[in-house]
Design a protein that fits this description.
Elements (H helix, E strand, L loop, with lengths): L2 H18 L4 E4 L6 H9 L4 E4 L3 H15 L3 E5 L3 H4 L2 H10 L3 E7 L25 E4 L7 H19 L5 E7 L34 H11 L5 E5 L7 H12 L3 E3 L15 E2 L2 H4 L3 H6 L4 E5 L6 H9 L4 E6 L13 E4 L2 H12 L6 H19 L9 H11 L5 E4 L3 H9 L8 E3 L10 H9 L5 E6 H6 L5 H6 L3 E7 L15 H9 L6 H7 L3 E5 L2 H13 L3 E7 L2 H19 L3
Parallel strand pairs: 1-2, 1-3, 3-4, 4-6, 5-6, 7-8, 7-10, 8-9, 10-11, 11-12, 13-14, 13-15, 15-16, 16-18, 17-18
């Protein structure tokens, strides 16, 4: 049997197994050694292939798509440093628990470590940032090898999705010739009636006596808080707010928790806890006795500081399967059980257990006062970065999604995104908190038709302009709001700002780039807003149009820092009266 026939059947059976496992999308970066994978994916009728020239942006695009679709997406590249460009997105997928199936082509074994071009060591190249690695066998097509390659495909899918989802890596060594032959009979194994056999797994739950143990640990306290950090379970918001109602506890809702927006009840939701806890004095005044935390660690730095300053707070950290996302190293209880199921079980089996109503009322009043301070002077010139968030969130429609950039934008979202009945999903790359790949992740989120607005700083925008190609290439609709304060605005809030001799060069890093030219190069429409009227007009226009649309909002870094500090001071003075 010819090499080409062996290659074709081997790769086709692998890809068909992914399709039978309900994989629907693959992102391919062109290259020669990956020809068998790329052409066979393109040939398969049940998998849509997306072509992206830049491997780094391609991987982030797939990451955004996998998060939004809540299922694995494959990425394919050629050998050599092409695969190394996947690294940032794989790290993000690992920490954000997003399922990716990473397929790298490689030189065959005889061409490794002998000076052959485009050959690097790809064995375990992503190290601990993938859940599983497999060096694939060289292609053969006898029955045992076709069963083997299908089992690897099935295992890749199940491993990527099971427990804490994450990336898996399969490395395919290929010998030339590399072009498959799709004229062969039964390429996909249909005549052999091959059927996918999924791996079945369920949610982890607690026994009633374990829930009773948690109840006993917190029963002697009167002041508790439920905290919901970044997470994407669409059912948790209603479950956790229902639990809060039964326990009469406030809910600290991170902006990425999916708790601030939606149809569920929000009477107990405290969205301004970050602003309330800015000062050490307020962290003492509003210190809880215990915390029940769901999801990842919140964005809020004041919340983290409160835990550092008060290690005596009893904390239960809920993880759906496993993990240790508690960077303060306090003596926390870790609960490995599905958070939504836990909330339901408490309400159904333990029932109502009222804590101090005065404590809840105190938090509600503090939240009301903080929001009033934050909303003052909403449209006073010049444009304030925090009220850009308020304006956007008020203007977008139901079922819209917001993708938020790291550094300053996500912190402004934390402060200025208030509860709303509109079902708005909020996405961010908060696994590693990097600024790379944000445009690509947002485009991946929008790739299947979801309306998405990306809010990002000028440095993050610059960092991933290559990602804009996908908007032009596939006609993906994306509205991008670039908050341009000419540099890294977050550093104006950090101690580095007190060293003016080197601040601008090392941390401020003004770009002085014309983003209009970049936008138009990728077929987008550009708007620039330096006043509230211009910004509102741009929002109204872009809400009606399609394609890539970029709104650049001009702000000033130092004015922004002073404005934020003024807000925090005013909130503190108001709260001293409570």
């Amino acid at each position: 049997m010819s090499h080409t026939e062996q290659l074709t059947r081997y790769v086709a059976n692998f890809i068909d197994e992914l399709a039978q496992g309900e994989m629907t999308d693959v992102v391919i970066s062109p290259g020669s050694r990956s020809t068998p994978l790329a052409m066979t994916f393109a040939e398969h009728p049940k998998i849509k292939h997306w072509i992206h020239m830049d491997e780094r942006s391609a991987a982030f695009f797939a990451l955004g798509m996998a998060r939004e679709q809540r299922r694995p997406v494959a990425i394919v590249c050629t050998s050599g440093t092409a695969a190394a460009n996947y690294y940032p997105a794989i790290v993000e997928a690992f920490y954000s628990r997003i399922p990716l199936v990473v397929l790298t082509a490689d030189r065959p074994h005889e061409l490794r470590d002998v000076g052959s071009p485009q050959a690097i060591d790809q064995i375990n190249m992503f190290d601990k940032y993938v859940k599983w690695f497999q060096e694939m066998a060289l292609p053969e097509d006898h029955q045992t090898m076709l069963q083997y390659v299908r089992s690897m495909g099935s295992r890749a899918l199940s491993t990527a999705q099971d427990s804490n989802p994450g990336p898996v890596h399969l490395n395919f060594p290929f010998r030339s010739p590399l072009v498959p032959d799709f004229t062969l009979s039964d390429v996909w194994g249909e005549e052999r009636n091959v059927q996918h056999r999924p791996v079945l797994s369920g949610k982890r739950t607690l026994k009633l006596e374990q829930i009773q143990f948690i109840k006993e640990k917190i029963a002697s306290h009167s002041k508790g808080v439920i905290v919901c950090g970044p997470q994407m379970d669409p059912e948790l918001a209603e479950a956790v707010t229902d639990l809060a109602k039964h326990l009469q506890l406030p809910v600290f809702a991170d902006p990425l928790s999916q708790v601030r927006a939606g149809y569920h009840e929000k009477d107990h939701v405290i969205e301004s806890y970050d602003a309330i806890l800015k000062s050490e004095e307020m962290r003492q005044k509003f210190k809880p006795d215990f915390i029940l935390r769901f999801g990842a660690m919140p964005v809020s730095k004041p919340f983290t500081l409160m835990l550092h300053e008060h290690p005596e707070i009893t904390q239960f950290v809920f993880e759906d399967f496993e993990g240790h996302r508690e960077p303060t190293h306090t003596q926390s209880f870790f609960v490995y059980a599905d958070g939504t199921s836990f909330c339901h079980h408490w309400v159904e089996e333990v029932g109502t257990w009222m804590f101090d109503k005065a404590w809840l009322d105190k938090w509600r009043e503090a939240n009301r006062m903080a929001k009033a301070c934050l909303l003052e002077d909403s449209y006073v010139e010049p444009i304030s970065e925090g009220h850009v968030i308020t304006n956007v969130m008020d203007s977008i429609q139901a079922s819209h999604a917001v993708f938020i950039g790291n550094s300053m934008p996500v912190r402004d979202l934390d402060t200025f995104f208030f509860t709303t009945p509109k079902p708005i999903e909020v996405y961010a790359n908060r696994g590693a908190n990097g600024i790379d790949g944000v445009i690509s992740s947002a485009l991946g989120t929008a790739a299947h038709g979801k309306e998405v607005t990306l809010i990002v700083g000028d440095i993050s925008f610059y960092h991933d302009v290559n990602g804009l190609l996908m908007a032009k290439q596939y006609g993906i609709n994306l509205r991008v709001i670039v908050v341009n304060n000419e540099g890294g605005g977050i550093f104006s809030f950090l101690p580095q700002a007190s060293s003016p001799d080197h601040f601008e060069t090392l941390f401020g890093t003004p770009l002085q780039l014309d983003f209009q030219k970049v936008t138009e190069m990728y077929g987008g429409t550009f708007y620039r807003a330096s006043s509230w009227d211009e910004f509102q007009e741009s929002l109204n226009i872009t809400a009606e149009n399609s394609g890539l649309q970029v709104i650049e909002v001009i702000t000033n870094r130092q004015d922004n820092a002073d404005w934020h500090r003024g807000k925090w001071s005013k909130i503190k003075q108001a709260l001293l009266q409570l």
